[in-house]
Write a structure and sequence with these properties.
This protein is of the alpha/beta class. It has a single domain (4-271), classed as Alpha-Beta Barrel (TIM Barrel), CATH 3.20.20. It has 10 helices and 9 strands. A 7-stranded parallel sheet has the order 1-2-3-4-5-6-7. Helix 1 (19-28) links the parallel strand 1 and strand 2 (33-39). Helix 4 runs parallel beside helix 7. The radius of gyration is 18 Å and the shape is globular.
Length: 272
Amino acid sequence: MIRQNLHTHTIFCDGKNTPGEMAQAALDAGLTSLGFSGHSPMPWSNDWGMTSEKLPGYRAAVAAAKEAYAGRLAIYCGVEWDSLSVPEFGGYDFVIGSVHHIDMGLPGEPPSVDNTPAATADALARYFGGDPGSMAEAYFAGYETIADTAAVDIVGHFDLLTKFDEKAGFFDETDPRFFDVAIAAMERLLRAGKLFEINTGAMSRGWRTAPFPSRRLLRELKARGARMLVSSDSHSAGTIAYAFDEAEALLRDTGFTERWELTDAGFRPVSL
């Protein structure tokens, strides 16, 4: 049984609960450790990420929860660092590296792949001439920054680009223009020593019936010796360990015999 979640958001970014409330939810769900991963500050104004001004309060609130739950729940302070954020990593126990936007080299906020189906359709038409292969190439290119950033430990929701595909069908992962660039990015990340997460967040929010990455990409990760952990990408107390049983079963079904957890001594494997 999975007893850890490292992908957790709170009121300091776009989550609905305080660190203390999320810690209590984790304890109630039977977890033995919890990592907080607030969204890193972005270079444009937004309503979902932390700001630089919020960072001291975020760290203090996580530290307070760690003290309050000492001996009952191990707590780690991390960050979900976006590929377009300024690299600031001091004071964190772990770093998740994610691509939420596609850098177009233009002023203002770049197109998001994590907003709504309408926003994805608009980005596909406006920036890529309706060509999903071009959009996939630009999206996976963002993982070059993640691979080259030594402080990043974990690759967040690797194929987030496909978040709305069960309902809208934007991308075909069997298309070589999608699959080949995904594999190239995957291999670069693995050479850099990154762990990958199975992420159930889009399931809890009703967009998907299966986690990220897809079953096909999980098989490719297994063939390349990837180290996997399971995360809920939780934004509320009720989803702290969402669909962990399904994620664990998916790991087994795609050939994995272990998953990884963060400990005080670093990342360690746990048998499935």
